[in-house]
Amino acid sequence: MTESEFIENPCPGKKTKRVNHIKMQIISDMRADTVTNIVKEQIDFQAELTTDDSTSYNKLGEHVKSHDAQVVKPADLPKILPWVHIAIGNVKRLLLDTHHQLKKEYLQYYLNEFCYKFNRRYFGEKLFDRLVTVAVTYPTDFKSKIYNRTVCG
């Protein structure tokens, strides 16, 4: 998922949309019910969605302000959904290069790390405050997976 907005006066040759934040979540399948449940959990009901015309997205219009489903030709992908494909390409390259032998149980952690690094460029002076907030509020179970225990020490 990407949150983006149109740029009023884009420079020649630049993209017409600017990305604000991204979020990635592993899903078990692309059924409409699965996708709809995630949208209900993660996206505000006042959001305006632009998606491709997949049958997985049929029910999204009931849960958001507007849903624009478009049949997108491969040549038009960079114009319609530019940041979705850039983010997917970047995370695929990261996983193939750096984390090439990752286990499925850790994939969501790697996606979270990628999204945090991608999104932090907008934090500016609040970067340290945001990091502390995430560190304090994140309910991690990572340590117990590594050491097979539930207590520290």
Structure commentary:
The chain is built from 6 helices and 4 strands, in the order ββαββααααα. By secondary structure, the chain is of the alpha+beta class. It has a single domain, classed as Nucleotidyltransferase, domain 5, CATH 3.30.420. It starts with a strand and ends in a 6-residue tail after the last helix. 4% of the residues are buried.
What topology does this entry show?
Blueprint: E1 2-6, E2 17-22, H1 32-42, E3 48-52, E4 66-70, H2 77-80, H3 82-97, H4 107-119, H5 127-137, H6 142-147
Parallel strand pairs: 3-4
Antiparallel strand pairs: 1-2
Pfam families: DDE_Tnp_IS1595 (PF12762)
Protein name: ISXO2-like transposase domain-containing protein
InterPro entries: Tnp_ISXO2-like
Describe the structure in brief:
The chain is α+β, with helices and mostly antiparallel strands.
Observed structural traits:
two-stranded parallel ribbon; single chain; Tnp_ISXO2-like; ISXO2-like transposase domain-containing protein; Nucleotidyltransferase, domain 5; 153 residues
What would the CATH topology be?
Answer: Nucleotidyltransferase, domain 5
Q: What general outline do the C-alpha atoms trace?
A: globular
Strand percentage, roughly? Answer: 5-15%
Radius of gyration, Cα only, in angstroms?
A: 18 Å
Compute the separation of the termini in Å.
Answer: 38 Å
CATH architecture: 2-Layer Sandwich
N-to-C order of helices and strands: EEHEEHHHHH
Ranges where pLDDT stays below 50 over 5 or more residues in a row are none
* Number of H- or I-type helical stretches: 6
Structural class: alpha+beta
**Approximate helicity band:** 25-40%
Main beta sheet: 2 strands, antiparallel
CATH class: Alpha Beta
